[in-house]
Amino acid sequence: MRPSGRALDQMRDISIETDVTKHAEGSCLIRCGETHVLCTASLEERVPPFLRNTGQGWVTAEYGMLPRATTTRMRREAASGKQSGRTQEIQRLIGRSLRAGIDRQALGERQITVDCDVIQADGGTRCASITGGWVALRLAVNKLMKAGDITMDPLLDHVAAVSCGIYAGQPVLDLDYPEDSEAGTDANFVMTGAGRMIEVQASAEGATFSRNEFESLLALAEAGVANLVAAQKAAVA
Q: Which terminal residue of the chain has fewer beta carbons within 10 Å of its beta carbon, N or C?
């Protein structure tokens, strides 16, 4: 029934390759099917002005798509002089999600910026960015701990995200672009490794959905996030 031939509860193939850039404190290339995102984490010994002299750190994120990440070339947002509303919304989501999984007091007064650059898009780019962004963040924090700059691990839990939706009347897990573009309901779930929810985005794209359908999507998301967390653990082991 699905265009890819996958089962309703079957995710795309996941791979996470770490240390893919030379200079970033943490980096990975995450592939969720045909969606590929480069994630880097950069450490700075400073914080935004509102956090100075508080002893608390900060994690923020930036997101972008390369011009040929999709079927036709997109103009670089830098060329137009401003970011789209979609880009701003996604990078704020990534930042919020990653901050939910960190003890900012234990991080100390420093900032980690996670950059997520979409090399190739086939649906679920924000979810892949959050999942890969956590891996890059984990690797950057590992370097801080190895250097003795912090003594307590500030990462409280894994953070991962997956999309679900109602496609052709059925709840499905991990939408690719053909499904995402035709789904009657589209949802993104951001969760911790322990299964606690950080953020849920769900909207009726073509038809309203029931509570039972939402609960079916949540059950799929819980299983999907568990798979992503297992991939994260394997990547940083």
A: C
